[in-house]
Amino acid sequence: MRRLRRAASTSVFRWTLSIAAGFTAMALLLFGFIYWQTAVHERQKIDRTVVLEAHALMQAPTAEVVSQLAAWLADDPHGVRYAGLFRLDGGHLSGNLQGFPKRLPIDGRAHRAVFKGIDRDHDGDDPEVVRAVAVPVDASRVLVIGYDIDELEDVQDIIRRALMLGLAPTLLLSLAGGTWLAWRAQSRVASVHGAIARIMQGHLSGRLPVQGTGDDLDRLSIAVNGMLDEIERLIEGVRGVSDSIAHDLRTPLTRVRNRLERSREEAMTRDDFQSAADRAIASVDQALAVVSSVLRISAIDHGRRREAFARLDLAEVLTEAVELYEPLAEEKGVTLRPDIHSGAIVIGDHDMLLEAVGNLLDNAIKFAPVHTAVKLSLTAEVYGLRIRIEDRGPGILPGERDRVLQRFYRSERSRSVPGSGLGLSLVASVMALHGFRLEIGDTAPGCIIDVHCTPAMPWILRNLQDGHPIRKIDPT
Amino acid sequence: MSRMLLIEDDVETVDEVAGYFRSRGYEVECVTNGPDGLTQASVGRADVLVVDRMLPGLDGLAILGTLRRNEIHTPALVLSALSEIDDRVRGLRAGGDDYLGKPFALSELAARIEALLRRPVSSAQTLLRVGPLELNLITHTARRGGRILELLPRELRLLEYMMRRVGQTVTRTMLFEDVWSYNFPPRSNLVDVHMGRLRRKLDWNCEEELISNVRGVGFVLKSPS
Q1: Which among A278, A307, A325 has the least Cβ separation from residue B215?
Q2: B81 touching A, CB under 8 A?
Q3: Is B32 exposed, middle or buried (0-12, 13-18, 19+ CB in 10 A)?
Q4: Of A282, A296, A327, the CB nearest to B193
Q5: What are the distances in angstroms from CA A467 to CA A337, A379, A464, B30?
């Protein structure tokens, strides 16, 4: 009952009520017009005809009234005419009216009259209803002329009944429909309220109910659910990140502490102390690097750094990255094999892209086995440019490919190699800031990382696809 | 003895920096607000200024702007908690000669102050000599004694940078910023690897080591005495 009462107070219900009221008013107007057309207008027409006909008959010489009357009655294909000539005392003289209609004033104007007459309508004993006029012919006789209006009255009846039959269900239906709609909306809103309350209590995985009808409430719920997904992802991320930061800081800090403690007890010489201090500084630097990386990724994520965006040649960035990392690869016994064509203009931040590509190269070199090659290529695709970095290392398992982009995530296979678990997430942030798409694949064994970039000028792409690399860059 | 004027309102930073530099033989004068800083700097006794950006009374960049307009060109390093590239560029444009984001390692600050105090006298010089090393910037050739060094362009620039700062400790960040012109933190051992390559080419085998590591800080090119 409370629910129904609440439903009645909803906006849906109020709209339904006002729409029902509007429909009723329209129907009343329409019926009113039809009724007026038939009942009033038609009757007036008949009344005028009756009066006119009566006066026309009166124009005939007194002696010919009876014959004129007979002629008039005979000229009646629809069988609607009634006439009678009566004495003043009511005695029948002529015509198809057997008796003087009751209470018909003899005033030359049309009135409704009812009498028992010839059963032309074959409606049994029903009295005939006519519009009739009574006029005195002379001092002793009265002429009565009438038109049958049975049909007219029938039509009026039908209209009235139609009005009743149509209006009542319309009202009932709209009331019922409104109530149902309002109740339904009410119960959906109630379930949404419930879901929101649960989410606010901390059940972040809760979602608004979606019916699958695709209506506006559904679409709203889907949008809100999308927002909740993102919020949950961020909160989970923050949670994970703060745990990971704490963990990643605790390890080097504990190491520092232990070293300092040991050196205080064991160090005998100035050199001993210095080397202990040096190692402590190295550990602290490691901790600081973690914090700086986290802050840097946050800065990139917040898009604060899009001011430095400019038109740049991706090929130049890649060539610089190769130059920067070539000695590292050489030291590791890995060959860098670039395949870069210039003329790939994008909008971006040179330093950030260089840092990101550098991180990818750094990873590839780190994981590549000795005497293998790390390939770096820049090619034109159908919808953009593609940077591909390929190594022959252990690769990234399909199940881990999303997670390696999260901060601090370190895959099982990378645990033996030093790193903070932040390199790839910095790459992901930089590429996201640029609107570039990162894709991790496999060469079994080995890892392929593709970055799909949007070129600043599409015609560049056409040029590249047509096989006109503008110029090939010599890696040296 | 070098004189440093430190204009900084954070007491802890002042204590830390002043103590560190005094122990290294500097004469350090500390001022904790903008207007006094400008007055002290205008007197012109200091050899180097260390100016914080956010100061009570007068912003650090405003101080530098006023000094430079008054033709006072004491080398200055701007300190700031705002370490984004834009702030760095703005700091340098306002008349700072170097810029260091907070928090910083004291050794990094020391290396930069030293660099400011012993700025390369003439960058127009095209033939550099340090002991047996000779670098011709016109022909892009380098030799150690009679041996010609096969250096890549970047290695030439690295060598030039080191040769212009003989005896000075340069940090990895300084190298990354000045030789590569990159404004992001260098990854782990990237600079070391490049430097290692240059050093191998310089020292060939068994020759006296010219560039050496300064533990925890960076590198130094020593002039053989």
Answers
A1: A278
A2: no
A3: middle
A4: A327
A5: 21, 11, 5, 65
Q: Does B89 touch chain A (CB under 8 A)?
A: no
Q: Measure the CA–CA gap between A22 and A170, rounded to whole angstroms.
A: 11
Cβ-based contacts of A323 with chain B (< 8 Å): 154
Q: B144 — phi, psi (to 5°)?
A: -115, 110
Q: Which of B86, B182, B185 sits opposite A292 (nearest CB)?
A: B185
Contact (CB, 8 A) for A374 and A391: yes
DSSP A264-320: HHH--SHHHHHHHHHHHHHHHHHHHHHHHHHHHHHHHHTTGGGGG-EEEEHHHHHHH
In B36-65, the residues whose Cβ lies within 8 Å of chain A are: none
Is residue A207 within 8 Å of A228, Cβ to Cβ? yes
Tens digit of pLDDT at every position of chain A (476 positions): 666 676 667 777 788 778 878 888 888 888 888 888 877 888 888 889 888 888 888 887 877 888 888 888 888 888 888 888 888 888 888 888 878 888 888 888 888 888 766 555 555 566 778 888 988 888 888 888 888 887 787 888 888 888 888 778 877 887 888 788 888 878 888 888 888 898 888 888 888 888 888 788 888 888 888 888 888 877 877 777 777 777 778 878 888 888 888 888 888 888 888 888 888 888 888 888 878 888 778 777 776 566 678 888 999 999 999 999 998 999 889 999 999 887 788 888 888 899 899 999 998 998 899 999 999 999 887 778 899 999 998 888 777 777 777 766 666 555 555 666 677 888 888 888 888 888 888 887 888 899 988 877 555 444 444 544 444 444 44
Q: Between B154, B182, B196, which is nearest A354 by CB? A: B182
Are residues A351 and B183, on separate chains, in Cβ contact within 8 Å? yes
- The answer to whether residue B193 neighbours chain A at the CB level (below 8 Å) is yes
β-partners of residue B50 are: B6, B77
- Collapsing DSSP to helix, strand or coil, A451 comes out as strand
Residues of A near B (Cβ–Cβ under 8 Å) read 278, 281-282, 285, 289, 292, 296, 299, 304-305, 307-308, 323-325, 327-328, 330-331, 351-352, 354-355, 358-359, 362, 476
